[in-house]
C-alpha cells in the first residue's frame, strides 16, 4: 500500500521504518509543519496517524479529497473531533483505537466479562503509567477501560485522592503516573472482602503499537465505509 504517516516524531519514524520493512511505500511523514509536501505526492491508499490531534483537520480534508482510508489512534480528542471521525466513517473506511496493542485489545475484552460479575461486590480502581513526555492524562486507553467499568455512570469517578476523604463511596478511583520512558501500563484492581483480583497489561516497547496499527491497516484495506476498531480486528464483532 501507499501510505502517508502522520507526524515526524519518534512514533512517526518507527511507523515509517516498520511499514517499509513490511513492503509498504511510505510517501511521506506529514504534520502541520510541512503540509505543502502533500501537493507533490501521488495519492495515498491510506493515512496512518497517532501523532497529535492538531493534525486531524488536514487528515480529514485529504481523505475526502483523495478517497482513501484512515487508521487513526491519536488520543485527547474533544467531542467535536470525535464527531468528525464518525462523520468521515460514513463515506470512508476509518479504523480508530486509543491503543493498537493486541494485548490491550484482549485486556478490554476480559474487562467486559469481569466487570459485570464483580462490580457489585468488589471495589474497583484503575491505574495507568506512561513516560514523562505524555501530554494527556488519563490516557486514552484508560478512558476506554473506564467506559467499560462504568458504562452508565453508576459510579462516581474519582481522579486521585488526598486529604480527609472519609470512607469509600460508590466510586472508581482513577490514577495516572508519569515517569521515565515507560511505554505504558494499565492495571485494574478489584478489591473484595479478604481477596483481590488484579488485571494488568504492561507494554515494554512502543513497537507493539506500531505493529498493531499496521495490522489494522492491512485488515482495513478494501473494506467499505464504516467505523472499525480493535474488536473487529480480533473478530469478536462478527455475527
Automatic annotation (TrEMBL):
The keyword DNA damage does not apply. InterPro entries: DapB_C (IPR022663), DapB_N (IPR000846), DapB_N_CS (IPR022664), DHDPR_bac (IPR023940), NAD(P)-bd_dom_sf (IPR036291). Keywords: Amino-acid biosynthesis, Cytoplasm, Diaminopimelate biosynthesis, Lysine biosynthesis, NAD, NADP, Oxidoreductase. It catalyses: (S)-2,3,4,5-tetrahydrodipicolinate + NAD(+) + H2O = (2S,4S)-4-hydroxy-2,3,4,5-tetrahydrodipicolinate + NADH + H(+); (S)-2,3,4,5-tetrahydrodipicolinate + NADP(+) + H2O = (2S,4S)-4-hydroxy-2,3,4,5-tetrahydrodipicolinate + NADPH + H(+). The keyword Disulfide bond does not apply. One of its GO terms (cellular component) is cytosol. Its EC number is 1.17.1.8. It is an enzyme of class 1 (oxidoreductase). One of its GO terms (biological process) is diaminopimelate biosynthetic process. NAD(+) binds at residues 73-75, 97-100. Residues 4-100 form the Dihydrodipicolinate reductase N-terminal domain. GO terms for molecular function: 4-hydroxy-tetrahydrodipicolinate reductase; NAD binding; NADP binding; oxidoreductase activity, acting on CH or CH2 groups, NAD or NADP as acceptor. Pfam families: DapB_C, DapB_N. (S)-2,3,4,5-tetrahydrodipicolinate binds at residues 131, 140-141. Coiled coil: none annotated. The active site is at residues 130, 134. Pathway: Amino-acid biosynthesis; L-lysine biosynthesis via DAP pathway; (S)-tetrahydrodipicolinate from L-aspartate: step 4/4. It is found in: Cytoplasm. Belongs to the DapB family. Homotetramer. Catalyzes the conversion of 4-hydroxy-tetrahydrodipicolinate (HTPA) to tetrahydrodipicolinate. This is 4-hydroxy-tetrahydrodipicolinate reductase. It comes from Absicoccus porci.
Amino acid at each position: 500500500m501507499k501510505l502517508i504517516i502522520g507526524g515526524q516524531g519518534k512514533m512517526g519514524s518507527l511507523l515509517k521504518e516498520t511499514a517499509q520493512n513490511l513492503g509498504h511505500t511510505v510517501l511521506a511523514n506529514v504534520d502541520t509543519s510541512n503540509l505543502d509536501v502533500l501537493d507533490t505526492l501521488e495519492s495515498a491508499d491510506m493515512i496512518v496517524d497517532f501523532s497529535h490531534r492538531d493534525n486531524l483537520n488536514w487528515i480529514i480534508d485529504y481523505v475526502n479529497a483523495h478517497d482513501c482510508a484512515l487508521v487513526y489512534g491519536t488520543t485527547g480528542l474533544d467531542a467535536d473531533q470525535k464527531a468528525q471521525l464518525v462523520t468521515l466513517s460514513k463515506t470512508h473506511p476509518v479504523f480508530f483505537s486509543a491503543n493498537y496493542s493486541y494485548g490491550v485489545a484482549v485486556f478490554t475484552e476480559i474487562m467486559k466479562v469481569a466487570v459485570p460479575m464483580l462490580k457489585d461486590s468488589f471495589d474497583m480502581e484503575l491505574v495507568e503509567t506512561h513516560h514523562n513526555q505524555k501530554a494527556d492524562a488519563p490516557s486514552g486507553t484508560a478512558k476506554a477501560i473506564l467506559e467499560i467499568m462504568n458504562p452508565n455512570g453508576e459510579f462516581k469517578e474519582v481522579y486521585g485522592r488526598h486529604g480527609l476523604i472519609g470512607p469509600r463511596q460508590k466510586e472508581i478511583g482513577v490514577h495516572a503516573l508519569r515517569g521515565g520512558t515507560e511505554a505504558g501500563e494499565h492495571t485494574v484492581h478489584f478489591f473484595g472482602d479478604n481477596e483481590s483480583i488484579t488485571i494488568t497489561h504492561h507494554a515494554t516497547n512502543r513497537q507493539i503499537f506500531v505493529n498493531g496499527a499496521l495490522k489494522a491497516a492491512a485488515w482495513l484495506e478494501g473494506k467499505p465505509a464504516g467505523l472499525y476498531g480493535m474488536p473487529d480486528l480480533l473478530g469478536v464483532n462478527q455475527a
